Amino acid sequence: MITTVIFDMDGLLLDTEPLWAVSMNRVATKHGIAITPERFKETTGLRIYEVTEHWARHYPWEGSTPDLVAGEILDDIIALSKEQGGIMRGVLPLLDLLERHELKIGLATSSPTRMVEALIEHFGIARRFHCVTSADAVEMGKPHPAVFLHCAKNLGSLPHECLVLEDSVNGAIAGKAARMKVIAVPDELHWDDPRFSIADMKLRSLEDLDEGVLMRM
Predict the structure, then answer these.
(1) pTM for the full model?
(2) Catalytic site residues?
(3) First vs last Cα of the chain: how many Å apart?
(4) Which residues, 6+ apart, have CB-to-CB distance to 215 below 8 Å?
(5) Is 3.40.50.20 the CATH classification of the domain at 4-15+85-216?
(6) Contact, 165 vs 7, CB < 8 A?
(7) Do 170 and 187 form a contact (C-beta atoms < 8 A)?
(8) CA atoms within 13 A on the CB side of 55
(9) Where in the chain do CATH 1.10.150.240 domains reside?
(10) I want to staple 175 with a disulfide (CB 3.0 to 4.6 A). Which of 95, 116, 138, 164 is the partner?
(11) 3-class secondary-structure state, position 6
């Protein structure tokens, strides 16, 4: 029986996923880092400080350290998300549904704590979550299951009682590795990715996650 629902953030809770590339490209260009949108694929799923460390090893530049560059990207993505981002469709009705069923609600993301706290407060949904866990709190990011297990532990939930909502393949892998149920909500571009078959269910939008779907999990 599901007692706990754990959300991812970027691309699932908030429509911030495409803004990362904008901020990363803007800051990289400022520092003369020889990175391109195509090369962003090399660091998919890595935390931002791991991304800039990767850049420093493979595309070294002079001046600012990888940590300072990561900090600038964070400043930029937070500001950009507040300006251009928003809550994904279906999120607020789903949160209402979960609260009516008195389920525990968590947020487990690879985004840094500073960004998570700033954005969920800005969009007025911070109080809806009983636990917010960033990959900052664990040693390994997704597809490692640590961030989901850490969130479940803080909520007092066993893994098999948890349902994970994810938009990425790495997130779906992490949820299943944590021995949790997973509903994948890929964007249109990645809808046909066969790797999403690892999920227990695939939906077009969180608008499709109604009481009937919840009861089947």
Answers:
(1) 0.93
(2) 8, 10
(3) 8
(4) none
(5) no
(6) yes
(7) no
(8) 32
(9) 17-84
(10) 164
(11) strand
